[in-house]
Structure formats: structure tokens, C-alpha cells
Amino acid sequence: MRRGLAGALVTGALLVALAPSASAQQTSCDPFTQPSFRGDVPTAQQVIGINLGDRDVTAAESDKYLLAVDAASTRVTSGVAATSVQGRPLRYAIAGTLTFATGIAMGYRPGGGVLGVVGAVLLGVVAGWSLAWIFTWFGTVGRSAQGVQGISLMVMFPLTFLSNAFVPTRTMPGWLEAFANVNPVSHVISAMRGLANHGTVNADLGWALLGFAVIVAVFAPLSVRRFSRKM
Question: In angstroms, rounded to a whole number, what is the distance separating the alpha carbons of residues 13 and 114?
Fold first, then answer.
């Protein structure tokens, strides 16, 4: 339970807003039909008049849709992390509360207490913000939204699933264990487990923060420079 919960926090936060309501009636799945929303949350078409991927959205459109999803779904919590130099609120959305609440309902008891859980969630937020710079750079160099999404998934899924998020690395083949042990996501997961399960700070937290610093130092300037050239 404890091993899988931290991994679920990283991957589940990306998917929870689009998940159907737990109380919704189950229906059969046809892989050959176009998927559609069940009405739990509004679509982008309903809120901003376009489908996601049709074109780049403005900051105002992004905020408008985020707030609409937040208002319609109890699974998403949004807020303002800070204010930019232009006075624009920098919004965020966190789904970590749902992950831990589900784990606790299933019998998980975080040994780290409230502070450990809060620290783990905050570390997950920092990890998402840091890794987002990689995908921001992809967005500035990609020619289409579909192409950027494809490249992003090719990077995100190996980092997530070829890690210690779901299985112990000692059970993996030698070559895969070697990769998983140096995977930055593995360090994040181990650090989050230490905080949530034991309330301790381990060496993985230092490696994770170092990895975040390197990612931001490399991809933030690249993203800003590329974006400035397009303006």
C-alpha cells in the first residue's frame, strides 16, 4: 500500500480531473468509438468555445477553464500560487488530497503524520513544476499540439513506469534496475515515501532537489529564449 501510494500521487494527479465520477453507472467500453465526457466536468468547448488542441489557448482561457473544472468537480482543488510581475495570478491545481484520501479509506495510515503528508504533496507539486519546464520547451519547438502531446507522452511514460513507483527495483532485470535507480522519478518517489510513511528526510530528497535544479536551469532558459523568438 505504502509503495504504490506515492506512485499513484505522481501519475494520478495527471488523470484525476478527467476520471468519471465514482458514483457514475458503469457502461461497456467500445475501443472503436470516439470517447466523450459524461458531463461530470465541462468540456473546453463548453467553456472557452474550442476543443483542446485546436489552437494555443491564452492565459485568460486557461484560467477560465481551470476554474470551471474546479467548480464542477470535487476531485480538483485549485488556487493561486503567486502573482507574476505583470499582476497575473499564477494558478495551480492539486489532486494529491484525493490520492491520500483514497489510500486512507483503503487502510493506508501515513506514519509521517500530517506534516509528512503535506511535505510529500508539496514535493509532488515541486516535481510537477520542475518537470513542466521540459514539456514547456517541447511546446515552444513543436509544430502542432498533437505532436507536442505525442513527444511528451514518450518522455513521461518511461520516466513514470520505469521507476520504483509501482514495483521494487530489486525485482527488475539488471539493466532495467540500473536505469530505475538513477531515474529522477525514483528519487522523488523514495523521498515522498520517507516523508509520508516515516516523517523522515532521506538522501533521495537531496538528489531529487538537485535534479529539479538542473532541469529548471537547463530548460527554463531554453523555453523562455525560444518563446521570446516566437513573439
Answer: 19
* CA within 13 Å, CB half, 198: 8
Q: Which pLDDT score, from 0 to 100, does residue 214 have? A: 92
Q: Is residue 39 a contact partner of residue 154, using CB atoms and an 8 Å limit?
A: no
Residues 89 and 52: their CA atoms lie apart, in Å, by 22
Task: Tell me if 28 is assigned to some domain.
Answer: no
**Residue type present at position 14:** L
Domain count along the chain: 1
What is the domain range of residue 119?
Answer: 2-13+36-230
Measured distance CA(198)–CA(196) in Å, rounded: 6
The set of cell numbers assigned to 38 is 459524461
94, β-bridge pairs: 77
Residue 19 inside a domain? The answer is no
Closest CA to 160 of 201, 188, 130: 188
Is 40 within a domain?
Answer: yes
For residue 27, being part of any structural domain is answered with no
Banded model confidence at residue 99, pLDDT cuts 50, 70, 90: confident
Cα distance between residue 192 and residue 197, in whole Å: 8
E strands along 46-171, which residues? Answer: 77-83, 89-94
Angle at 99 between CA 121 and CA 114, to 5 degrees: 45
29-71 pLDDT, tens digit each: 454 555 454 556 778 888 888 887 777 777 778 778 877 877 7
Q: How far apart are the first and last CA of the chain?
A: 48
